[in-house]
Design a protein that fits this description.
Order of helices and strands: HHEEH
Strand order of the largest sheet: 1-2
Structural class: alpha+beta
Shape: elongated
Largest sheet: 2 strands, antiparallel
Mean pLDDT: 83
Number of strands: 2
Distance between the termini: 48 Å
Strand content: 5-15%
Low-confidence stretches: none
Amino acid sequence: MPVKLTNLELDLLRKLVNGEAVSLSSQLRLRLEMAGVLRDGAAGIVVTTAGRRLAEQRPVEVAADSPAPGPGPKVARDGRGRRLPFQRRSVF
């Protein structure tokens, strides 16, 4: 089963391969370790061969032609931009 990593995880993996300093949370470190792209041991974080292959791949470009999602529904807000309470629309 191919590993599905987010763009953020791939960017962090590329930085690790290049030797740049990266701050990884324990949850992200465990996720990458379970995916098999790095090993975390007493010597520190080591990128595996599978992780190096993923880091060398080109990032997938998002199509610029795809329409952006439209703005959400209008919500009543006060002067500071906070939502006003009890402004739900009735379904009736």
